[in-house]
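hiii so um. not sure if this is the right channel but i have a protein structure encoded as tokens and i wanna go backwards to a sequence. like what aa goes where. can anyone help
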């Protein structure tokens, strides 16, 4: 727990503290690329993958994921204890979905000679999630581009996510995120945040059509949204359920990387969750697979409201992905080809959002 003294650190000292945390992280990177830092045999160069919030070390047999010491408001990994909790929460949630992939939490320790070791002796400088490593060629998004995802794969995927939804947590707090007010908040935010991209990325006409359709649907279906809350259909879901977060190994889907750092993202109606995957399949030009995925889930759940809300949530998911691509395109460090690819994706997502919106 942070003390009052820590909370009142002068601004220049706070910056120094943050820099020190990042320096420690870079020290960890420089040490964990050494094969002798691990307590198992490594027969390949350790590969490092960085994202905005994490660093992953690929050793051949296992992957180790640490959180960066960052604070973006919607997530806070600024202290060692917060990063430990995030690792623990992520392991707990993902083990429910894919116990075969997630192993345990490990410590990264500094020895007396200053070297760092996984589960070693000495001061704990970081925590990491240990996972079995899977070949990136087996990521579902890659397999979709090669036309290697089958009807059987998506049916199995529907079974896995349905089994998770049966045991996923719910509570009055969780339900609030998928309530009428929670859904309206998310939709209003989408339109506010994309207003500046009108005409540049999404046409005025499409923006207005989608916004009008969404607002009309919400106002005309208040009882349906309330019914979903009463029936406990708002759960702590995966939160980022698309083909980039699924491996297919020996014909079996393995879902990974469920969100735990901010409840607003994963806590939603289960229909919003399955709509994410269906929209993603549609985005990849696999409409038939999307239909089979939804049909399988419907058969399993016997949820009579799925088709009443599906197009609404399909549109919502496509719009959010378009919005995120808009944000990414603003990065001044992107080269022109990369930016054009991202903008092409954004426009494709917005077109999907409109297509779905025209159905409700």
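sure thing!! here u go:
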């Amino acid at each position: 727990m942070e003390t009052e003294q820590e909370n009142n650190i002068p601004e220049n000292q706070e910056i120094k503290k943050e820099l020190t945390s990042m320096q420690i992280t870079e020290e960890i990177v420089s040490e964990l690329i050494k094969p002798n830092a691990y307590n198992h045999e490594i027969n390949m160069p350790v590969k490092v993958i960085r994202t905005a919030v994490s660093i992953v070390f690929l050793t051949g047999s296992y992957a180790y994921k640490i959180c960066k010491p960052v604070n973006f408001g919607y997530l806070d990994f600024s202290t060692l204890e917060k990063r430990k909790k995030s690792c623990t929460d992520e392991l707990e949630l993902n083990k429910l979905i894919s116990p075969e992939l997630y192993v345990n939490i490990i410590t990264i320790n500094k020895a007396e000679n200053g070297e760092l070791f996984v589960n070693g002796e000495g001061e704990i400088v970081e925590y990491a999630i240990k996972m079995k490593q899977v070949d990136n060629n087996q990521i579902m998004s890659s397999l979709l581009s090669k036309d290697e995802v089958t009807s059987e794969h998506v049916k199995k995927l529907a079974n896995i996510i349905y089994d998770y939804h049966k045991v996923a947590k719910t509570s009055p707090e969780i339900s609030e995120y998928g309530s009428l007010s929670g859904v309206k908040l998310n939709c209003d935010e989408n339109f506010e945040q994309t207003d500046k991209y009108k005409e540049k990325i999404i046409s005025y006409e499409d923006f207005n059509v989608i916004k009008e359709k969404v607002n009309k649907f919400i106002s005309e279906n208040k009882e349906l949204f309330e019914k979903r809350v009463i029936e406990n259909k708002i759960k702590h879901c995966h939160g980022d359920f698309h083909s980039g977060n699924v491996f297919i190994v020996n014909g079996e889907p393995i879902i990974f990387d469920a969100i735990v750092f901010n409840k607003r993202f994963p806590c939603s109606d289960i229909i919003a969750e399955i709509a994410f995957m269906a929209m993603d399949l549609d985005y990849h030009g696999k409409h038939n697979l999307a239909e089979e995925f939804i049909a399988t889930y419907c058969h399993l759940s016997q949820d009579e409201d799925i088709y009443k809300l599906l197009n609404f949530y399909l549109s919502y998911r496509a719009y959010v992905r378009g919005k995120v691509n808009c944000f990414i395109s603003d990065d001044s460090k992107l080269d022109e080809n990369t930016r054009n690819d991202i903008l092409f994706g954004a426009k494709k997502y917005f077109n999907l959002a409109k297509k779905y919106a025209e159905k409700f």
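oh and Confidence is low (pLDDT under 50) at residues 1-19.
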